[in-house]
Amino acid sequence: MTAATEPANPGWTEGGAAIVFQRCNACGAKQYFRRAFCHACGSTELSVLSAEGTGTVYAVSHVTRAPTPEARAHGPYTIVLVDADEGFRLMAHGAHDLAIGDRVSATFNRFIDGLVPYFERTTS
Amino acid sequence: MSFITGVGLTAFGKHEGSSTLDLMSVAAEQAIADAGLKRDEIDGLVCGYATTMPHIMLATVFAEHFGIRPSYCHAVQVGGATGMAMTMLAHCIVEGGVARNVLVVGGENRLTGQSRDASVQALAQVGHPVYEVPLGPTIPAYYGLVASRYMHEYGVTEEDLAEFAVLMRRHAAEHPGAQFHERITVADVMASKPVASPLKLLDCCPVSDGGAAFVVSREPTGAVGVKVRGCAQAHTHQHISAAPALSEFGAEIAIARAKADSGLSIADVRYAAVYDSFTITLAMLLEDLGLAARGEAAARVRSGYFDRDGVMPLNTHGGLMSYGHCGVGGAMAHMVETQLQMTGRAGNRQVKDASIALLHGDGGVLSSHVSMFLERVR
Q1: Of A104, B87, B299, B322, which residue is least crowded by CB atoms under 10 Å?
Q2: Run of H or E residues at B122
Q3: Domain count, chain B
Q4: Is the pLDDT of residue A2 over 70?
């Protein structure tokens, strides 16, 4: 289990360079989509944590037909679902050569209006 | 009890100059006439939504436009599952004694009423607005992710998926109302333009204009009754990031509940109408529903199992992939075709025995599911 740090930096959805999640202090459930209560038990006692940005690729799709002119301007990009080591799943961008099962770690790339997590294969 | 007493369906494709209300009206008129009813005998109305005509009260807008004053009336929104969810609702309304004849209607000028970009963007909004949409995904990308995982787990190949597009096109060739009639091959699908890997253009349904409608009634109005034998839903998530697992979807839960509700099993089914927004959608749903073993659906396509004269005729009108997809009306075409088959009115597409049919709709990214069994009664 990777150590998660608290308090969290602003996550990428708020303009920061971090992947942020919540952990329920009552039941231990993790959730990625932020809300005021635990989706599993309803407790409002939640910790907001920064993830290490490491995980395993769960699914991959290389997008050649982008939805908007702004997205198209970036050229083709790869969308991945990653199972973060802390125990939640997130959607992100990734390197074109990623495959299911790859161990990956995140940096942050500019895409359209903001920073988005970008996963590459862990080299070690 | 409830019965599907009348059906209406426009051709799908381009209806330049037709609005959403126009397309809904054409289909509704056909369905009411087909049921042998008069407009004033329609006391319930359930309609879907239209991306080209967002409105907080589309059902009453349509009722006023069409000229009916129902005693029960509202819209339903469950993405691609809307048609089947509306059918289930109409069944419940009729069984509950709330209305006698419920008009179910959907339609949209989705192709000519907006730009292709606008359509792609509107649909991508089923993704999470904060955690997914800023990454630039599309509906094909959500299903591309699903496909990558499913192929990984069950050894399904891109050529396997292509078989479903070829089958739907072969069926559409026999229906004059279908958007596409030109036969295609697995090689054509493989060579088509990449969209969101592993999905290519011919793995995807098109954007269409069109309308569809049917009437759900307390009693049959013709010699052959098409009875709703049982139905059920399952809703496991909205966003793909929050899906429980990309290889265990709600279709399995919905079909188990529908079997219990109807007392039927897959062995009883003679005709299948299954949501087919993408080749992967159809492949997975067939396997989730038990119409093929895991990873085996493509082999069944190759062997002719799902052909018009096969063991389990499937989407004989050509499905979303080749009849077309106009939004809510898209999957309603599956119901229209099923009712025609069950009443022996499918003409050159008629199958030999459609006595019991299984229908399944899916909305979102395999988020919402509706399974339904229909039975022919005389």
Answers
A1: B299
A2: helix B116-124
A3: 1
A4: no
Q: Tell whether the model's pLDDT for residue A40 goes beyond 50.
A: yes
Q: Is residue B194 part of a domain?
A: no
Q: What is the ipTM of this complex?
A: 0.94
Do residue B148 and residue A100 have CB atoms under 8 angstroms apart?
A: yes
CB-CB under 8 Å, A69 with B117: yes
Contact A100 B144 (CB under 8 A): no
In chain A, helix, strand, coil percent, each to 5? 5, 45, 50
Length of chain B: 378
Average pLDDT of chain B is 96
Of B134, B197, B241, Cβ closest to residue A112: B134
Chain B residues touching residue A98 (CB < 8 angstroms) = none
| Vertex B104 angle, CA B93 and B237, to 5° | 80
Task: Name every residue whose Cβ is closer than 8 Å to that of residue B92 and which is 6 or more positions away in sequence.
Answer: none
User: Residue A6: pLDDT above 90?
Assistant: no
CA-nearest residue of chain A to B237? A39
What is the domain range of residue B20?
Answer: 3-113+208-217
Q: Is B24 helix (H, G, I), strand (E, B) or coil?
A: helix
Disruptive mutation site among A65, A80, A100 for chain B (greatest number of B CBs within 10 Å): A65
What amino acid is encoded at B274 in this protein? Answer: V
Asked if the Cβ–Cβ distance from A100 to B149 is below 8 Å, we say: yes
Q: Which amino acid, residue B226?
A: V
The pLDDT of residue A110 is 95
Nearest Cβ partner for A91 among B132, B138, B152: B132
Predicted pLDDT at A1: 42
User: Is residue B40, in this structure, part of any structural domain at all?
Assistant: yes
Phi, psi of B284 (to 5 degrees): -65, -45
Instruction: Nearest chain A residue to B244 by CA: give it.
Output: A89
Cβ distance B136 to A74 less than 8 Å, yes or no, reads yes
Mean pLDDT by 10 residues, chain B (378 residues): 98 97 98 98 97 96 98 97 98 98 97 87 86 95 96 97 98 98 98 98 97 98 96 96 80 97 98 98 97 97 98 98 97 98 98 97 95 96
CATH number at residue B101: 3.40.47.10
